[in-house]
Amino acid sequence: MRMMNSADLPATIPVFPLPGALLLPRARLPLHLFEPRYLQMFEDVLKTSHRLIGMVQTHKKPNGDEQLHAIGCAGRVTQFSETEDGRYMITLAGISRFRVEKEVTGFSPYRKAEVSWEGFERDLGKPEQDDTFDREMFLNTLGKFFDVHDLRTDWESLKDADTELLINSLSMLCPFEPEEKQALLEAPSLTTRRETLMTLIEFALRGGSSEEMIQ
């Protein structure tokens, strides 16, 4: 996949509001599309040069409507396959976070938004480093978290994984609440994301609720 730069990023993108589904720059997210509106979105995206879909968490407004969070992450469609019954399995490669400026109204069956890419230039660059990362301590704590949640993983791969790939993959895969995933997305650097991830893991091990932590 060729690298994208700021000139490639469009001002308007389709957005896929999927609670709990987190995408981060330079990470990959598999998605299963079956609703007609998202099948239409996918077919429209394939006709563009950028092939970007914005993944965004939602939160409820006082009137009960689902509102988009201010920050999401756009992914480029890099792989897809169609099933016999017309569904799609696709893979998004995380390109850059964005800020939602406003939703676009129109005749599209799916949601679109005008977005700003300013402030997220680092997302388009090289993988980030975390110079203060204590991998052994982190993996020990992670092991306790996985035991509590009856999760399994290839620990040898985790020991050898690139730091950014490790932190971002775990941020995406661990069973956190949508607001917690949003906090991981909005972390300004890899170090702060790792610190947030560790805080969430430790809090879960102490039996705390996400609502307590967000307050």
Automatic annotation (TrEMBL):
SMART domains: LON. PROSITE patterns: LON_N. InterPro entries: Lon_prtase_N (IPR003111), Lon_prtase_N_sf (IPR046336), PUA-like_sf (IPR015947). Residues 13-205 form the Lon N-terminal domain. Gene3D superfamilies: LON domain-like (2.30.130.40). PANTHER family: ATP-DEPENDENT PROTEASE LA (LON) DOMAIN PROTEIN. This is Lon N-terminal domain-containing protein.
